[in-house]
Design goal:
It is built from six helices and four strands, in the order αβαβαββααα. With 186 residues, the protein is of the alpha/beta class. Strands 1-2-4-3 form a four-stranded mixed beta sheet. It has a single domain, classed as Collagenase (Catalytic Domain). The longest helix has 22 residues.
Length: 186
Amino acid sequence: MSPDSANTKKAGMNAAGPAVTPAELPAKVSVAFSVQYATDAPELPRWRLRRWATCAIEHVAAEEAELLDAPRFQRAELTMRLVDAEEGRALNNCYRQRDYATNVLTFEYGVDSFGTISGDIVLCVPVLHREAEEQGKPLLAHAAHLTVHGVLHALGYDHIDEEDAEEMEALETRILAHMGIPDPYQ
């Protein structure tokens, strides 16, 4: 179950959640976002990935501020590693026992006693390119979606069951819409 599922239900809200406008996004969450390049990805500079990740973190913080009595976290420390298909496959096989390169793989470490949520996100660049082409999506729109998806996993969201999947997809869609990116599920 995602972090705010129970609170969303208590507040009588649906999966669409509260409407958050850009002016309402808080600047209260401190973000540390580092990027490691294990493969070439000139179309994905650090500033772009950091902007997408920060937007997702701030959006989640704003929505949770509407639902929770106290914030779950005050700081987010995330690392994104861009990898080739070989490393993506090895990591997916090692940690998920699936012998193929997946698009995004996230390691969520939770919230520490200081209120810092942390995680590592692995983005497989060749899979990103292939999927964008196969799905007829602009590369940067798909990269933004996968970045947001990975960040949400690092923040504790999942899509294991149908209800959580619907909630996570709706949250992704709202975040991407805030960035001017079309619904990736359409």
